[in-house]
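Job type: complex structure
Entries:
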Amino acid sequence: MKLFFLALRNAFRSKTRAFLTILGIAIAVVAFGVLRTTVTAWYAGVDAAAVNRLAVRNAVSFIFPMPYSYRDKIASVEGVDAVSYANWFGGTYIDQSQFFARFAVDAETFFDLYPELKLSEQELNDFKRERNSCVIGSEIATRYNLALGDLMTLEGDIYPGQWTFVIRGIYQPRDKNTDATQMLFQWDYLNERMLQEAPPRANWIGWFNVRVKNPDEAALVSSRIDALFENSTAETITETEAEFQRSFIQSSGAILGAMNIVSFTIVLVIMLVLANTMMMSARERTREYAVLKTLGFSVPKISFLILAESLVISVLGGALGLLLTFPLVRAFAAAIPKGWFPVFEVELITIILLTVAVILIGAASAFFPIRTVAKSRIADSLRFVG
Amino acid sequence: MAIPFIYAVENLRVRRLASLVTVVGISLVAFTFTAVLMMAHGVERTLAKTGSPDNVIVIRKGSSDEISSSVSQDAQNVLATLPQVRLDDEGFPILSAEPVVVINLEKANGAVSNITVRGVSKQVALLRPKFQIVSGRMFNPDLRELIVGKPIAERFPGSGVGNTIKFAGNEWTVVGVFECDGGGYESEMWGNNTQLMEAFGRGTTASSLAIKLQSADDFDAFAAAIEADIRLQETKVEREEEFYRKQSEFLALFIRILGTFVTIVLGMGATVGAAITMYGAVANRTSEIGTMRSLGFSRRSILTVFLTESVLISLLGTLLGLILASGLSAFSVSTLNFSSFAELTFSFAMSGGIVVGSLIFGTLMGLVGGFFPSVRAARMNIVNALRTG
């Protein structure tokens, strides 16, 4: 135990150097934290996916719709508990830089299938009853200062024209990783207008959401649904919600890969900074270690000294970095344009990774100094002039 | 009198290991910084090369991309008659009514990606002079045939010449591979526009209309003519170059924000590393400093020489990082462009601005990191310094 205190005092022998090393490590830890948080934020959709929900889309790509008539056929498939549907509306709200998801959904069933979007009984009934009503997420309500009863006007692109809605519901996200930035309105409203303005575009669905009775049967039910529509003009691909979300992420694989590489680089930089410090301090104390050896300290004991010193610095740096990561992630989230990442929070896995990395780096940086001490001869070390 | 420059260089050589470690740390930072800037620049350059200066693109008024846009046959007909449109040798307007969709294809590693499929008119070669077939042949406009851009053929195993791809209820045969000046079109698959419009059940409605004007200066007159015409109320026109440049904005911005943040933080870390090394250097040479001062060198010259050493280390590191990063130009990256919902292939592109920026950044790291240690060295008391070590 006394050895540990010796190591502690050794670590702060040169206060400037110790402080700088801790600072350097803390900075790198923050960078690592923000990067990993960005990567996990990207996967937020995948994490938030429910195990008992499937997504049915057109096999060619998600920009092609499917006929409305598929709904009943899907509902009658064995293992299917409930079916809902949605069309991506897109359009512009205020201006083109306001990103958030805007869908036309089946008012009757949608919120049934998505219990993580919490609405009061009253709001749900109002939404179902009024044709041109809409429901927005709590984040959207806060961001644009909207309340129940306010109007929202969208300029359509896929579905051209001016579309005005009355806000009849503001949903609260149930979980930390639930997207609270969606805007949903009645599919029937969209369809009625299409029937009037562009009949060939009516009665088409963007994708179906299916709840299965038994999550273990997800793959089976998926293949049953796809088999129904094989060789038709609109073949389908049914997959679990998690896979559906993941397919969006995969296409950005290159960027995610780059971020992971950079995270690794950061870890390397941390290691270099700390290793540099440890090597310098060990070099300075070559004569000291020789004296300790003369006094009878074994090599393992001296190694422990060096290791403890290294770990003290790395752990302190890691702790400081972790403390700084949280406010910085929040600052970063505020700096990126709203809507890029609906969810941006530091995950537990990031914290765990960081802690492990910091400890490993502390140990690795002590390697060369320990090896030098172990191999050196007392007489040579005593003679050493830094 | 200033301390000779060679002294600074020699010191680096003498304290090899510590200098090397710092150089490597800084080179990592410089590499990351440069790589990110090259990536963003690569995206912009690829998309900037996509348009021609005398081409314009007409899309639906509320849309910002081709996927969500539509231009009716009526509007197409009116646009073709406008006087600013260039005519080919036979007197036909040079334009292409293009249906644009996105389909899924599997990459070599199994990941599914979105590829843009574009229908082009028979005049596409006149419209886009840089377009050329590099293997196979051009598609037959009366058949369900496609040509694919070179990077797509290389990355997607099912898309080479001779393969068939199934979509829109038909099987399409790939008959050729094309290049188009390394621009965004190379990430697409092209077929005849009439065939594709028919296959997608769109009748004669196109996603966008690409038109060649008599000259690039005719743009304003052309845009005014569209504004004035009631029949074209639902459309808007942009220069092709401008349109595709905007498609790169989001992705390039994203890469830059992320990259800049990481590099700033990494840079701070490397600066700290440089500072630690310099403090160590100062501590080791205390008696040397005392000697130099007693020889008559001023405090300022001590400060300068240590700063010089620091800047030298960081410049070396930056150069190393730059050289390594420039090797990246051989690689191309393929990722989803959020603005078009489809895959875009681009390569890392170096520019003079990036080199200058990296060098400045590197010098800054050396200056900031070495400042305080140099000040400490300069402020040393001669007698105490000589007494040490």
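Summary: The CA atoms of residues 226 and 232 of chain B lie 6 Å apart. The mean pLDDT of chain B is 87.
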